[in-house]
Design brief:
The chain is of the alpha/beta class and 319 residues long. It is built from nine helices and ten strands. The chain is 36% helix and 19% strand. This is Transient receptor potential cation channel, subfamily M, member 6.
Length: 319
């Protein structure tokens, strides 16, 4: 990046008008930003220029970026729980902002349970600029851009999800390569934690990480959250598949110091992620390190997912 790109003033910001959401007007504010942007500057943009309400909670949602099927009970618990928690606490929601995987499920949750008041939608997609289909259509300063999130099934790129309210489009110069946004997203989360939920209170904005399904990369993400000082609470939706189910299984098995057979679990990791034994052993080590902080990891069971979600967010806000 240092050799082949140079920084310049952003040339893409304004409002996206999503064209495939006939049931309601869906527009989102957006800006293209450098991967090394200062998080404090981004936060000021969101609060002052975009005039977003100061959050009282940040729900950062991680999981599968490819399309996957959620069982109906899990989908209902996740969708209703997430939006109920967000509306009742005045939370912001962070996702990757794309129209596939867990970000698409968040968009569907906003559509079903989010209400029609655009001013109360604070669902922010933090998305790699180089991964967006037709991103050149978004170039222009202070523009109003119609956007058709159809996508090319043969393309490595993806579309933005039309039920997000804001987008930070993170550019590191690459095209068709995912992941560059994660570092900036984490820095921005830490910056938001420094905000006070009320000028008269000394309490910062709590952050909760939500995991639904997820690839092998999610394991390192969770470890970063739970080993942080102070740790960020993480809860996984059991029954959603892949990484979330591995976390849930290990969390149950280690509740009473129960032994987890190495060979069996290594085989399970290999099957879930499609990796060789060496990589499975590395992931097992990371999973065990996460369980060293197991008080910060919780399972959201399908039957009690909604109730647990409300309780967890309320306790985070000391309500």
């Amino acid at each position: 990046m240092e050799a082949h790109t140079k920084a310049t003033s952003t040339n893409a910001y304004g409002i996206i008008d999503f064209q495939d959401t006939a049931t309601r007007v869906c527009r989102a504010k957006y800006v293209r930003v450098a991967v090394d942007s200062k998080p404090e500057a981004l936060l000021q943009l969101m609060l002052r220029e975009w005039q977003m309400e100061r959050p009282k909670l940040l729900l950062t949602v991680h999981g599968g970026s490819e399309n996957f099927i959620l069982p109906p009970k899990v989908k209902q618990a996740f969708s209703k729980g997430l939006i109920t928690a967000a509306i009742s606490t005045g939370a912001w929601i962070f996702t990757d902002g794309i129209n596939t995987g867990v970000s698409k499920y968040v968009g569907e949750a906003v559509k079903l349970f989010g209400g029609h008041d655009l001013r109360k939608r604070n669902t922010i997609g933090i998305t790699p600029w180089g991964m967006i289909d037709n991103n050149l259509d978004l170039i222009g300063r202070d523009v109003f851009r119609p956007y058709q999130p159809l996508g090319n099934p043969l393309s490595k790129r993806t579309c933005l999800n039309g039920f997000h309210s804001h987008f930070l489009l993170v550019d590191d110069g690459t095209l068709g390569k995912p992941g560059c946004q994660q570092g900036l997203r984490r820095k921005l989360e830490k910056q938001i934690q420094l905000l006070k939920i009320h000028p008269r209170l000394n309490q910062g904005v709590p952050v909760l990480c939500v995991v639904v399904e997820g690839s092998a990369a999610i394991v390192s993400t969770v470890l970063d959250y739970v080993s942080n000082a102070p740790p960020v609470p993480v809860f996984v939706f059991e029954g959603s598949g892949k990484a979330a189910d591995l976390f849930a299984f290990l969390h149950k098995q280690t509740a009473n110091d129960r032994y987890v057979g190495n060979e069996d679990f290594l085989g399970r990791i290999g099957d879930v992620f499609g990796v060789e034994r060496t990589e499975a052993a590395h992931l097992y080590t990371l999973l065990q390190q996460c369980m060293d902080h197991r008080q910060s990891v919780s399972r959201a069971l399908t039957e009690i997912g909604l109730v647990w979600f409300k309780t967890q967010t309320a306790s985070s806000l000391s309500l």
